[in-house]
Amino acid sequence: MANRATQTASAATQNSKPLRAHAQPIVLYALLILGVVIVIVPLMWAAAASFTPNHKVFEYAYPFSWRALFPVDFTLEAYDNLFDRGFGRAVGNTFFLAIATVIIGGAVNALAGFAFGRFEFRGKNALFLTIVMLTFMVPVDLTAIPRYILVNNFGWINTWQGLLVPGLANSLVIFLFRQFFAEIPQELIDAARVDGATWLRVLISIILPISKPVLVAAALLMFISQWNAFFWPLLIAPTKEMRVVQVEISLAIGQYGTVWNELLAGSMIAAIVPILLVIPFQRYYVQAITGTGLE
Amino acid sequence: MMRARQQIIPYLFLLPALLLLVVFNLMPTIATLFESMFVISLRSGERVFAGFANYNRIFNDPIFWKSFQVTVVFSLLVNPIQIALALGLAVLINQRVHAIGIFRSIYLLPIAVSLNVTAIVWGLMLDQNSGMINGILWQLGVERQPFLHSVDQALWSIILIASWIGVPLWSLFILAGLQNIPPPVLEAAKIDGANAWQSFTKITLPLLRRVLAFVLVADTVANFLMFAPILLLTSGGPQLSTNLIMYETYRRGFLYGDLGASAAMLSVMLVIVFIIVGIELYALRGQD
Amino acid sequence: MLSRKLMLVTMLLGIFAILLAPASAQDEPTTITWLTLGWPADYIIEEFEARNPDINVEAEQVGFNDLFAQIQVRLGAGSEVPDVISVDVPLVSGYALRNWLLPLDPVFTGDEVEDWLPAAVNAGSYEGTLYAAPVSTSTQLLFYNKACFDRAGLMAPGADDRLTWEEIAEIAPQMTFDDDGDGTPDVWGFIWEQMVRIYQLQALPESLGGSAIGEDGLTVDGVINSPEWIEAYTYYYNMFNVWNAAPQGEEFWPADIFETGNICMFVGGPWNIGRFANNADLDIEWGVSRHPYFADGVAATPTGSWHIGVNANTENVEAATRFVHFISTGEGAELWWRRPGGGDFPAQQSVLAMFATEEEFDELPMSYMRTAADEATVNPRPRAVTVGFLEYEQILQNTFQDIRNGADVEESLNLAVQRIESEMAKYR
What we know:
Chain A has two domains: about 20-75, no CATH class; about 80-290, MetI-like (MetI-like fold). Chain A starts with a helix and ends with a helix. Chain A contains 15 helices and two strands. Helix content of chain A is about 65%, strand content about 0%. Chain A is an all-alpha fold. Chain A has helices at about 5-15, 25-50, 75-85, 85-120, 125-135, 145-155, 160-165, 170-180, 185-195, 200-205, 210-225, 230-235, 245-250, 260-280, 280-290; strands at about 255, 255-260. Chain B folds into two domains: about 1-30, no CATH class; about 60-285, Orthogonal Bundle (MetI-like fold). Helix content of chain B is about 75%, strand content about 0%. Chain B is built from 13 helices and two strands; from the N terminus they run αββαααααααααααα. Chain B has a two-stranded antiparallel sheet with strand order 1-2. Chain C has helices at about 1-20, 40-50, 65-75, 90-95, 110-115, 120-125, 145-150, 165-175, 200, 205, 225-240, 255-260, 270-275, 315-330, 330-335, 350-355, 370-375, 390-405, 410-425; strands at about 30-35, 55-60, 85-90, 125, 130, 130-135, 140-145, 190, 265-270, 285-290, 300, 305-310, 380. In chain C, the strands form four sheets. Chain C has a five-stranded mixed β-sheet, covered by helices on one side. A four-stranded mixed β-sheet of chain C has the order 8-9-7-10. In chain C, strands 4-5 form a two-stranded antiparallel ribbon. The radius of gyration of chain C is 23 Å and the shape is globular.
C-alpha cells in the first residue's frame, strides 16, 4: 500500500533543487567553509584543551596558533580525574534516564498527539491551547519552586521518579506528533477499523510503522532535553549516586577556581553523545519537520 | 454504542500526558504566578495577600526598567539576526553541490551541544586575557577586545553565543520548508524570465511564510526565556548591560528569595511574550 | 489554595507510607544528607562513619555558584532534606531570620564553644543563638615570587613585614613585564586572590576607617559610597586601569598563574601555603608577608569562612547534630583541616595550637602557617552582619568587576547603593 509519509520524505530529498542553476561554486564553498569554521573551531579548541594539562589550556589560544586546535601536549589527566570522581556513573545515570524518557515519554506523548491529531471531541482546542501551548511558553526553571514542593510532598527527593516523571510529558513533542499524525490519510485507518482493529491497535500497527521520521525526531528531542537537563536534577537529586552529567560538570567550577580541562572534558563527553545520535539521523529530522505541515 | 466508546477513547489517550502536564507544569506555573499577589513576612514566614503591591514595587524599581530596556534591545537585535542568518544558511545548505551532506551534518553539531556547554566554551573563547578570539585578533594586528567585560560589547557577545545554537537550529526548519517547494514552481518562474533574486523574493519567500511564522514565534519565545549564558558568564553585567528580565527574575527568586517580586516579573514577561507572539502571528497571517 | 491541595496529597501519601513501611527499620543505619561544595567530602565522611556505624552520610555536592540557589529553593520550600548544610558564614543571619536553621546551643558544651575563635562564634550566631557551628575561618597574607623582586632589583619583604598599599602601588608596576612585546604584560605585578569579592576587598576601606554596612544592618547609602570607600576603590581601580599592574577581564584563580610565574604578588588565603608546599613540580622561590594596609590607616584583615548548620525541618535531628558536632570540634575538625588537598584554616583554638607545637610547622614553608595563625588575630574584620548579605555580596561582586574593568568608581558605588537599597527594602 502506498505510504504517503515516506513518499513525502523521499520527495523532500529529491526536491533540493539549486536556487540558481549556475551558482558560483567558489563563492558558495567559501560561505560554506566560513560557516564550518565558526561551528567547528570552538568545538575543536574545547576538545583539544580537554586533552591538555590544566595549566596549558590557554597556551596556544593567545597568541593564536594552530596548536590550539590539536592536543599537542596530549594527556588524559582531565578524563582520568573526571572518571575517578564518578563521572562514569553520571554518564550511565543520564543515559538510563534519557532512554527511559524516550520510551515512556514517547508513549505518553504519542498517545496524546494521536488523540489531538485524529479525533474530534469536545474541548479539544481548549485543552490544546490551555495546557499544551501554555506550558510550552513557560520556562520550567522559573517555576521550579512549586514543583519542588510538590515533588517533595510525594517523597521523591533523591529518587529516580523525581528525576524522570516531571519531564515525561513534553508539549513540543505532543505538538510534533499531532501535526504528523493529522497528515496520515484517513483510508489507511478506515481500512484497519473495518477489519475490527482497536484504536490502540491502529496506532501501533498502522500509524507508528509509517511515522519513522517523527519518531526519530521526537526521540532525539526527548533524549537531548533529558541529557542536557541541569537545574532540575541539581535540585532534586544531587547525591553522588544520582548525579547527572551536567551536574557533574558544574562541580569543576569550585570556590577556589575552575579546573578548566575537567570542565571542558566533561563538556565534550556531554556533547559527543547527542552528536553521535544526531548525525546519523539528520535526514529524519528534516523529514519529520517537513511532515508536520509547518512548511 | 460505537459513538459512545469513541467519545471516551481520545480522553483516555490524552489522560497520561495531560495529567502529567497539569501536575508538573501547569499547576507550578499557576502557583508561581499566584505568588506575585503575596508577600512572605520574613520574620514569621507567613504569606500575606498583598494585591498588586509586588507589581507596584517592581514598576517603581529602576533596576527592573533597566532590565526591561535591555530585554527590548536584545529581542530587537537577536531575533531578526538569527532569522536572517538561519534563512541564509538554509538556502546555502539547500544547494545541490558536491559534499553538501557533509556540510549539513557539520552544521547540525551545535544543536546537540547544550546551552550551558556553549556558554562555557564561548566564554573562554572570548576571554579578554587569553581567549582564542583575542589570540586571532592579535595575529591580525587588531587590539585586544574586552568582549563580555565591556558595556558596548557584552550584549553582542551574548547574541553571538545564543546564535551559535539558534541559527543552525532554526535553519533546519527553514530547510524543511525549502525542500517542500515543488521544483516546477521555481522552474516556471525562470521561464518567465525572473532572475534568482526575484524568484527568491517573489516565490520562495511567500511559500515559506508558514514556516517563517513558526520560526519567528518559537525563536522569540526561546530568546525571551533564555538566561543560562547570563547566569554563567556576566551575572547581568557589566553595569547591568546584559541584565535580561529573565535573569533578573531568576536572581530575585532563586538567589535573593524575593518570590513575590520574581513572580511579578515573570507574569509581566509572560504577558509581553503573549502580546508579541500574537502580533507576530497577526502580521504573518495568511492572505488565503 | 495550592497548599491545601498539597496537604491532602501529603496526607494520602503519608497513609500509604505508613501502610507500606517495613515492619522493623531499627537495625537500618540512619541516612543523613549533607549539602556542601565539591571538596573531598568522602574523606571526612569515612572517618565519621567509622566512629558512628549507625549513621550514613550522603554528600550532596554542588558547584560554588549553585549552592546558594539550592539552599534558597530547598530550605525555602520547607523540605526536610538536606539534613546538614555547609553555610558561608555571613549568610547565617539571613537563614536564621527565615527559620531555616536549627538552634545549635544544646549541642555543644561550654568548653567547646570557648575553644572556637570568639569572632567565629559571633559570626555563626544570630540574636545570641548559635545557628551554624564554626568549621573553619580564614585570614589573608601577601604571597610573592622572589624572582620578580630580583628581576626588578627590589628587596623582598620578610614574613613579619607588613607592606603598605602605597608601597605595593610603587613596586607592582615595576614587576609587570611585557616580554613578548604585544602591549599586554605576560607577568603581572599584583592581584587579589578573590579579585571581585567583598570578603577580601572589604579590608581596603576598613583599613581607612570605613565600615561595611550601616548600624541597622540594612543601610548602605552613605556607607559604601563614603569617602573611605571611594578612596579605597579608586586605589583598586588604579591598580587595574592606571598602573596596569593587575590583569582585567574574567575572574580567575591567581594561584594557578602564580605557579607558572606569571603573577608576582597576590593577597590570598593560607590554603595556598599547603598547596605550594605540596606541589613537587613547583619551580618558584616564594614567600609570604603580612596583609598590606594603607599608610594613614590601620591593619585590617579579612576573616570568616565555612560553618555548618542543621536544617530546621530535618527528621534526623540527633544524627545530623552528631555529624555537625564531629566536624566542628576537636579531632574531627583537625581531620577536616588535614583532608587531601588541604584545608582553609581551623576555627578551633585547640586545633590552631598544633601550628605552634607540632614539628611539621617548624620549617619553611609550612612554618608560614604560624605567620597565618598569628595574622588571624590582627584586627580581623568580619563581613557585614546583615540579613540581606547575599544580595549585598552579589551586587558588590558585580560592582567590583565593573570597576576592575574600567567603570567609574563613584558612579559604580552609587549604582550599587541604589541596587542594594532596593533589595533591602523587603527586610525593613
